[in-house]
């Protein structure tokens, strides 16, 4: 049953056709929600009792780092599909998601550094949270470099997938780093067990920004995977018929 | 599921298990070395060589901040041991009583001479008027 499901949705052609239909909706929803979240968060949400206005970078920082981890997790699921079921589309998706993941991880690290200057008094400390996130950024670059270093693309896809699977170990480490070790970074504000320690007046715009950025990143992923699929399948008949 | 796919899945699980095992061993052996700072109790027990630069972290003890020009004296506590800190310079804006702090410096003659002070902030975000009410409780 899993195999049947995978085969139905794993044809690059049906992926391109489906995402071409979804793309305009996703980009519209994404841009609307992220504008709403940021305008609400930056102009209308109250200032923080301790940090004043400088906390407002949370509306960029938190969504970015959430997707830094989620995109990696998505890539790991794709890697599993590619390695076990030999789904080509899964490898194409890893290759086109990795630059987006690297970009958003960089934005997360950069916005965190900017936030650190007025609050912590430093833009960088080698604490467990910051270091493990830097490792995530390097993983993204390493995955792309590994893929680029083979002229045999099938081999490149497979080795890249293995590296992606190994690197997924880092995701729970990033998540738990603030609990396992003493860090400069504060523990999580939102958790399943104890709810949110962010006041609702700040939490709602934050959640809207998170959802909005998700749609924007999916739209970027659609664009980058579509162009990558055309490159990889350029000799196939359906590409010349469809494009 | 086809046998060949099952085999691939097992191989993949083995790769993941072995590398996770390796990473766990590294993390367990590094253990507290991955901490960013010593707490006051840990530092007093740790027998640190004089002249060795370390980081100390904890809470700034209530009412312990004494300012004298640019000089600053205060106590860092983990609610069981206190350490006296001296600092010459401008601390971050979030440095205040009952708030987390990480200090880089040297522990000499029972006084911690700070080179740099970093302020920790907690995971709570709320508007100012609500915060005053919470603190009073």
Automatic annotation (TrEMBL), chain B:
Biological process (GO), any one: cytochrome complex assembly
Principal place of residence: membrane
Location relative to the cell: Cell membrane; Membrane
Presence of keyword Transmembrane: yes
InterPro entries: CcmE, CcmE-like_sf, NA-bd_OB-fold
Segments crossing the lipid bilayer: 12-30
Residues annotated as binding heme: 121, 125
Pfam families for this protein: CcmE (PF03100)
GO molecular-function terms, A-Z: heme binding; metal ion binding
Alphabetical UniProt keywords: Cell membrane, Cytochrome c-type biogenesis, Heme, Iron, Membrane, Metal-binding, Signal-anchor, Transmembrane, Transmembrane helix
Residue intervals on the Cytoplasmic side: 1-8
Domain of life of the organism encoding this protein: Bacteria
One cellular component term from this protein's GO annotations in UniProt: plasma membrane
Iron found in the keyword field: yes
UniProt membrane topology term: Single-pass type II membrane protein
Extracellular compartment residues: 30-137
Family indicated by similarity: Belongs to the CcmE/CycJ family.
Function statement: Heme chaperone required for the biogenesis of c-type cytochromes. Transiently binds heme delivered by CcmC and transfers the heme to apo-cytochromes in a process facilitated by CcmF and CcmH.
Stated name of the protein: Cytochrome c-type biogenesis protein CcmE
The species this protein was found in: SAR86 cluster bacterium SAR86E
Gene responsible for this protein: ccmE
């Amino acid at each position: 049953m899993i195999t049947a499901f995978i085969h139905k949705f794993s044809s690059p052609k049906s992926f391109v056709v489906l995402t071409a239909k979804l793309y305009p909706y996703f980009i519209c929803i994404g841009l609307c929600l992220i504008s709403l979240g940021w305008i609400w968060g930056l102009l209308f949400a109250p200032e923080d009792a301790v940090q004043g206005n400088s906390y407002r970078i949370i509306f960029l920082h938190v969504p970015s780092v959430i997707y830094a981890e989620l995109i990696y997790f998505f890539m790991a699921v794709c890697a599993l599909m590619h390695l076990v079921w030999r789904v080509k589309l899964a490898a194409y998706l890893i290759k086109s998601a990795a630059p987006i993941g690297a970009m958003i991880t960089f934005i997360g690290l950069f916005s965190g550094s900017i936030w650190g200057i007025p609050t912590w008094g430093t833009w960088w400390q080698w604490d467990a949270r910051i270091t493990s996130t830097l490792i995530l950024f390097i993983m993204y670059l390493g995955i792309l470099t590994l893929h680029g270093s083979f002229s045999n693309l099938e081999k490149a896809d497979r080795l890249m997938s293995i590296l992606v699977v190994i690197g997924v170990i880092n995701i729970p480490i990033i998540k738990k780093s603030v609990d396992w070790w003493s860090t400069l970074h504060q523990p999580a504000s939102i958790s399943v067990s104890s709810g949110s320690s962010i006041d609702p007046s700040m939490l709602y715009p934050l959640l809207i920004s998170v959802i909005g950025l998700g749609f924007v990143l999916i739209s970027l992923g659609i664009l980058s995977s579509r162009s990558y699929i055309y490159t990889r399948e350029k000799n196939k008949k359906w590409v010349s018929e469809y494009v | 599921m086809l046998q060949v796919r099952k085999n691939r899945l097992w191989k993949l699980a083995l790769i993941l298990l072995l590398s996770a095992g390796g990473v766990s061993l590294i993390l367990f052996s590094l253990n507290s070395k991955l901490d960013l700072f010593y707490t006051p109790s840990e530092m007093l027990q740790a027998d640190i060589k004089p002249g060795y630069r370390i980081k100390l972290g904890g809470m700034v003890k209530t009412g312990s901040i004494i300012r004298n020009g640019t000089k600053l004296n205060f106590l860092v506590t983990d609610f069981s041991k206190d350490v006296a800190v001296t600092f010459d310079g401008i601390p971050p804006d979030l440095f205040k009583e009952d708030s987390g702090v990480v200090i880089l410096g040297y522990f000499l003659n029972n006084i911690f001479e700070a080179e740099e002070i970093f302020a920790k902030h907690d995971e709570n975000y709320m508007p100012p008027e609500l915060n005053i009410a919470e603190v009073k409780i």
